[in-house]
Amino acid sequence: MRITRTGRRGHRAAALTTTVLTASALLLTGCSSNSDSDASDSNGNITLTVADFGQFGYKEADLFAKYHKLHPKITVKEETTANEQDYYPKLLQQLNTGSGLADVTGIEVGRIKEVVDTQAAKFTDLSKTINVSDWVSWKEKQATASDGTVIGAGTDIGPMSLCYRRDLFQQAGLPTDRDAVAKAVAGGWEDYLKLGEQYKKKAPSGTYFMDSASAMYNAVVSSSAKQYYDADGKPIYKDSPSVQQGWNLAAEAASKKLTHGLAQFTDAWTAALRKGSVATVACPAWMAGQISTNSGDAFKGKWDIAKAPGSTAANWGGSFLAVPKSGKHAKEAAELVKWLTAPEQQAEVFKAIGVFPSNKGAYDLDSVKNATLPYFNNAPIGQIYASEAQSIPEAVLGPKDATIKDTISTQINNMEQRGTKPADAWKAATEAIDKVIG
User: Using alpha carbons only, how large is the chain's radius of gyration in Å?
Assistant: First the structure.
């Protein structure tokens, strides 16, 4: 969405029409400081504040204005922080002091477990307002405390696919049809690397098979139910099969020079997309907008989207809307959250900025199920992601998932960019993580 969440810094989305996604760039909204939200007057008019980060798409879909028309006595004000890494510490400080909280707060999926475990008592139980079964099952479980309290309603999710350059594949002698590409990597990310080796043999000058080994690593880990923690809350990242698989594949990609070695969302990464030197990108739903925005009109129709490698669906990304109990209008705020996360509104956000709904009801709406991406050779994105979304395994989340993922990704970047040996990079990653999680 936003799209500077953990794992998608600096992301900007493209816009969907009723049935297509265009390449129009939508810039991040500016920063604004939170304040206690008690605005009301003698006539019963109130102002609800929504604090979020990056780009949730509500402004682009004009949803707050639409809500005001439905509820003339309620005005909604959005307070946006560009970077989630700046937003989250501020949210924790506000929760700890009980001051400065908005009526509605956004929470990134990499943070939700920590908030559920340590701050749930400070949020309104939304299970009394929303029907949790309306969402893909694993989504609302992520925001559910042990006592059944639901502290967040799901916004978007990031079902995985593979974005690839048809023209570069053709020049390298690889299949270009999306079904043929999916078949070539059907065995998993190991097949993806084999395809990369084939690409490298005849790669067009100055191009690389993948943008980033750390992105592939995140895609691998995201396809597993067991990632960084076990069901008892114990960190298992050192022994996690999915982490080991992702790390080994990333190390192999780096050693075989299959990767451009660019940390995603950096200036160098966006420049590479603009130049056209990247052949594939691990592609959660929200990534398509980033690629089209940064690649520009010159590469429209040259990109395509295929099913992700392997038979296990993956999710990378997603957020929630929560209602702090301290707000003076918690009941009205909960109703706003219910409306914003309903199928019709999630579909409007999908049209506006291209992020995929977590509410299953949206998948039957024409604007979602019939959506295609002209920029990506008219890829049937609604069908691709709806199919993926409903088969994603229920991942076990931990309080420091985001920190662990970011730290490991940094060391993968070091293997790519600095030639750091895998053993040394792993040692550096685990030492840094252990200092944080104890």
Answer: 21
What is the distance, to the nearest Å, from the Cα of residue 132 to the centroid of all Cα atoms in its chain? 21
In the structure, what pLDDT confidence band is assigned to residue 353 with cuts at 50, 70 and 90? Answer: confident
* pLDDT of res. 354: 79
* The model's pTM: 0.81
d(CA 70, CA 426): 54
Scored b (16 or more CB within 10 A) or e, 386-425 reads bebbeebeebbbbbbbbbbbbbbbebbbbbbeeebebeeb
Full DSSP string of 341-362: TSHHHHHHHHHHH-PEESBGGG
Please say whether the beta carbons of 113 and 6 come within 8 A.
no
Residue reference for tokens 């592939």:
216
CA distance 73 to 47: 8
Residues 6+ apart with CB under 8 A from 232: none
CA-CA-CA-CA torsion sign (176, 177, 181, 184): negative
For 230, other C-beta atoms within 10 Å of its C-beta total 14
Q: Span 81-100, mean pLDDT? A: 93
Whether the Cβ atoms of residue 155 and residue 56 lie closer than 8 Å to each other: yes
pLDDT digits (tens, 9 = 90+) for 225-244: 999 999 999 999 999 999 99
pLDDT of residue 319: 95
How do beta strands 153-165 and 356-357 pair?
A: antiparallel
| CB-based contact 12:26 (threshold 8 Å) | yes
Rounded CA gap, 246 and 240, in Å? 10
Phi, psi of 159 (to 5 degrees): -60, 145
